[in-house]
Amino acid sequence: MANKLEFEDSPYLQQHKNNPVNWYPWGEEALSKAIEEKKPIFVSIGYSSCHWCHVMEKESFEDIQIAELLNRDFISIKIDREERPDLDKYYQDLYQMLNRKGGGWPLSVFLSHDKKPFHIDTYIPDRRKYGRVGMFELLPTISYEWATNREDILKSSTRIDVLSRTLSGNEEREVDEKFDEIFLENVSNHFNSKFGGFSPAPKFPQIGVLKTLSLLNSMEMVEKTLKEMVKGGFYDLIDGGFCRYSVDEKWLVPHFEKMAYDNGLLLELFSDFYLKSGNPLFKRIALETASFLMEKMEQENLFYSASDADSEGVEGKYFVYDKSEIPAKVGSEDFEGKAIVRVDDWTEFPEEFQILKDLRKDRVYPDIDKKIITSWNSMIIKGLLKVSKIEKSYLEIAENSMNSLLQKMYIDGILYHSRLLDNSPKIEAFLEDYAYLTDALIELYQETLKSEYLEVLETLVNIAVSKFWRGKRWFTSDRDSDFPVEAETEDSSYPSSRAKIIISLSTSALLLDRLDLQEIAKDSVSRSYKNFTRYPTAFGTFTEAILKSHKELLVIKGKREELEKLEISSPFVFKKVAENSGFDICGIGLCYKNVASSDEVSEFIKGFFI
Questions:
Q1: Residue 347: what pLDDT?
Q2: Both 542 and 604 in a single domain?
Q3: Which of 181, 365, 465, 541 has the most CB atoms in a 10 Å sphere around its CB?
């Protein structure tokens, strides 16, 4: 018999609808029931393509005895972190605060009946192993303490709750004039010269750092990292597309799930870096990644959220090969008795890759989470716009995707966060959706110069400021959310939504002639600068936000047919349609010069940024 999750849209929640655990979705019914029955709440947060979420489900949530313990003594709630990034961030921040280390998924949280947390962990095995207490021990212990020592638990949960709701310091800090040098020095000190990247294993792509290094024309670290990333494993040499992260330092053994956000952001990065370097390897990877997204993840011009690491119950089964299947000319490395395709020399691409692609046709492809998420689709749209500079056909694809996204997710003046295409959206958008959607709209306007995109941009920027900028702080969700969760300044699974909205505001101020947006952007930077000098590698996108808000940006105004002929490569120069003759070269709130020719525009830009 199915539990309460059978009525939910989320593919992740649907995965758990037949568990013997009496799961509820997060909402009034479950929370009221906990108060009514004075039971503690067990919250489990994960996502559909998460390998260790599957492990915990198989070990614990499909176990009849563990389910009986949960059903008897707890109200159990499942949350899809992709549907509710606000709740996930709140509890991830709490885990980090209490444990002095980063969290992850699955996240396991025990709350009092009035939603105050008193115990938090990540993956919990069924029985004690890996040095971790198991559910068979933990659940009876918490039940006993709740029955016999409830007052102390409630006092403890109240203290934790107060601590978790304490807002960060909000004082203004002056931005160091040498912030870019501080960033470069710190990143250089963390750089792995052998395998690229800026951390030991596990290795994530840290896209914000790489993109900002490229903006600062620090090419060597970016080029080395990108070359190492695509040797095979973390990058799928056969189907194209990137996995979420590598468990080793040389980008070989990944967790095999492929996330929409990674592939959209890396598509943008590889396209941009090809245009800067001319290296054909980066062009190949960009086009293969775009092809993967179109082939495996697209429906009705929009893109699914993720494909799973597992197929037929085995992690990586679809992706790896028996050693006997690997042709002689193709390199590989061992992975738990199997082989991961690997190359070290990019001077030629083995034709035998097609043999390995054909072998996969008879395999079961991993499950795909078919949620459409506004922020993640916006990342892909911007990536497609960047790759359209290499292959023009992608411009039409990107524009169709944006029009479909606005049609499906921006309804009657309300922007939504996620939906299944066959169902109506229910969850309204978060800051990340506004941040990434406005970022993509700016890019689309630059490529098409169509005024309707500029109009939507201004509307969404205004809504974002009114909903999420409160008391000179950026919040992840609006005033009616469950918790006042401040938006992060540092990059995490993907670049910071606070940093992204600052970038959008800075550029929107230029394109819309809005000094008020520039003031909010600069104020946001000064109130977010506190930890920058301590952890610059975590603030890659925020460093870009400082650049865009503090460096002078230029907009070239002119007739559309003249602007279309104008080639601009600087990331700090934008175009806007106007009816003036020639080209007006302007900043925010002032214009510098009117010139007659594109050559004069180029000369001015060249001299301006010296």
A1: 65
A2: no
A3: 541
